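haha ok so turns out i had the wrong file open the whole time. this is the CORRECT one, sorry everyone. sequence first:
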Amino acid sequence: MTTADTGAPVLAAGCVLWRRSAGGGLELCLVHRPRYDDWSFPKGKLKRGEDALAGALREVEEETGHRCAPGARLPTARYTVQGRPKRVDYWAAEATGGHFEPNSEVDRVRWLPPGEARDRLTQPRDKQLVDALLGVLNPG
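then structure:
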């Protein structure tokens, strides 16, 4: 039986990738996917048997060219795609180095302050991840 036969959710993972700008401000990395013409955080489907965090880190590097240090767990997104449930586990992750090269999945990345990132995100469900990250980085 395949995942499609069982109605089991499509499993995916990603990160809210962040860094400090030269001026010390917070910047979040958004990716543009030409296939969907949307702006989102780097994420993707897990490979069979892959740990969610390992998959999230792999997807960040594949989509953005950046390596990162994972931090706190962020809210899990649950939604339906083409009639199938999908679950995306997220982590906060600080960029530690790398360089973006456009590819077939992601043609652009933007590093934006949190407010601009929130406004640029296509899906309303992704906007809560900005607030969750800010809560983790600035507790209290």
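The first helix runs from residue 3 to 6.
again sry for the mixup
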